[in-house]
Amino acid sequence: MRHKKKNFEEALLELAPLTWVTGIQDLSIPEGPERTRIGTVADILKASQSPDSKILNGLSFQDPWAGIRRSSFSSDAHALCTVYNQEGWTKKAPSIDHLRWNLAATKDSFHGWHIDSDGYGTFVNVISGSKWWIVARPKNRHNIDAFNNTLAFLDGLSPDDIETEAILLQPGSELIMRPNTLHAVYTPENAVCRGGHFYATSTMQDTFAGLVHTLICELIITNSSYAESRSILAEMINFYHTALVKEAITNGQSLAMFDIFKC
Ligand SMILES: O=C(O)CCC(=O)C(=O)O
Ligand SMILES: [Fe+2]
Question: Are 61 and 193 in contact (CB under 8 A)?
Answer without folding.
Answer: no
